[in-house]
Amino acid sequence: MAQLHVSDVVKTYGATTAVDHVSFSAAPGRILGLLGPNGAGKTSTIRMITHITMPDSGSVTYEGKPVGPWSQQRMGYLPEERGLYKRLKVQEQLVYLGTLKGLSKQEARTNARYWLDRFDATNWASMKTDELSKGMQQKIQFIATLLHDPSLLIFDEPFSGLDPINADLLRDIILDLRKDDRTILFASHRMEQVEQLCDDICLMARGEIVLQGALREVKRQFGRNTVVVEFGGSDTFVDALVDADVVRVNTRTAHRAELTLTGNAPARRVLDAALSAVDELYRFERVEPPLNEIFVETVGEAEARRMQEQAVAAA
Amino acid sequence: MYKIWLILRSEFWRRVRSTTFIVATLLAPLLLIVLMFAPALLGELGEESSEHTIAVVDDTGTLLDRLQDASEEASRLSFVAAHPPADSLRAAVLAGAYDGFVVLPASLLTDDNETITYYSTESSLGGPARLENRLEDAVRDAVLAARDVPEKIQALMERDVDVSSQVLSEEGEAGSGIILTFIGFGMAFIIYFAVFIYGQFVMQGVIQEKSNRVVEVVVSSVRPFELLMGKVLGVGAMGLVQMIVWVALAGAGMTFAGTLLALFVTPADLGVPTDASAQEVMAAAGITMPTIPLSLVAWFLLFFVGGYLLYASLFAAVGSAVEQQQDAQNLMYPVFIPLVVPLMFVTFVVESPDSLISLLLSLVPFFSPIIMPLRMTAASVPFWQTLLAFGLLVGGFVFTIWVAARIYRIGIFMYGKTPSLTEVVKWATYR
User: Chain B residues with CB inside 8 Å of A144's CB?
Assistant: First the structure.
């Protein structure tokens, strides 16, 4: 059963419509990826879910009730822009933020100790926050998000600024949290991260949702029109195929190409071209399109439709 | 409500336990004392150097003696006989032998319209005035003596009348008028500085939270309004603690002033018995400690709190709109101007506390925190006026807090270009 419902939500700031009739749901035990370029309305949507701002129209409900101070207590939010009180000691910081979430001082202290242990950070407790490195501060902020054992978790670009080791640690913890039947919302414009983590996606552009559903469904919808070729030797055949309008290039390196077939072009044309040109062929595979491709294709189409609509309105 | 309390407590402790706060709280009174006594001390030093020796060419034959007789007194002028010609005296003054010279013609004792001229190398205001006083006394004595006026009458004419003033109110005499007005000035300026400085603290706090980006985490746990109020009240509580410490220090200073004074001055010098009480010593030294009516202290605190709430919330609104203190300049004017306006009327209100303008100024919420306590020391203000002013002040701060909260909840998420005043005002109208 879905826990979080965003229904037909609109938010405007002055003349700009940041969120335009957006609806989606998130279910416990699953991770919902909110995707979109900068300015798509992700953060504005999240702020309404976190009850920081109120929608102009539409509603946000959690467990069947409109969100409010009560849901803030059960929710952990990691904003895109991180920040902590620089002068406070780590322990004080966590206890303060924990009590604001409704924990008693004692509970906050106990939970802070547990999470500091889990992040190998026990001996930071009495350090001032601005004495910590950036990566350490990120961990503290992450602990502050989890301290009160929230059932709804919202991460806005959680991996930005993290080194690979900490990013792995964070990913493991997010996947652990999913096992506990929590509802997790994950906003990002980094497609490969979303692909690795999310069960459902919700693609936003210009304040609207342009595509949503289970990640697997969405990918199936776009078919297996992508071809991956790995080879040794000359790669000129790729240029020839592009010139002949058989494929588009998604990614390309000296010995690997990921190509999207255009129109109804058969995949074997790529294989034929490759076999006649390369010294050795290591891999040839038809795959589902990467999310990045789907994203560009969909947002590109949405933009095109919008421009058409504007032309009609002007005429 | 509970969240406001949590924020208040955190804000309060974070500030109060800082070394800056402790040092400032303890050092400020010291600094104040230094500032208060520095002018007096400097004046004292200046006067010591203004010991003047004046050459007198006395054609009346009697005035110089009279001047010299009196010159042991504290006017720091001494007189020596000199002889013309004027040219050589001029040269002597220029050479520094005397500070100045004066010629007293014989007609000075007979002609009422005679004027004399004092020649000196410096144009000091105090010098001629003191000389004039001394000469007047000498001339008067000489003329009276010449007419055989009885000593009794001479004594009568030298009698001084000291005027001290008392303010009357329904509760009876409210202490010494001048000292009370002085206290009124003090309260007006304390409220002004306190509101301004604590308001700045609130603004800095808001700016720090915003530029640290910690604000978004906090408002995902509490309403922006709760954060705003918690901060304003937390800083306010810190301010109250500081004030109470200062009041306590001042009270202690007043209580023990006599004892302290006795350390430096022996009672005998002041003409009181050696076993005199501290109070008697003070009285003898010409220092009377005012008795401040408790109701005035209570109103002072109430108006301070009201004024602080009114302005601090506006400071917070300004802080929420910017990312750095420097960017706040332009937005500060609408807050700063109403805070400064009453200062310009302070003297006026003291001089005519019952005029219509004074009454109106003391009722307007933006001005009343400074003007009303001042007015209350200068005149006996009807209770209903004080109550009305305070009621309006409460209405005023409820309104500014409401406006500030509406600006604040938008401002804390606005990054980039510093908004104009019109934009900030527009935020208040957003849904």
Answer: 217
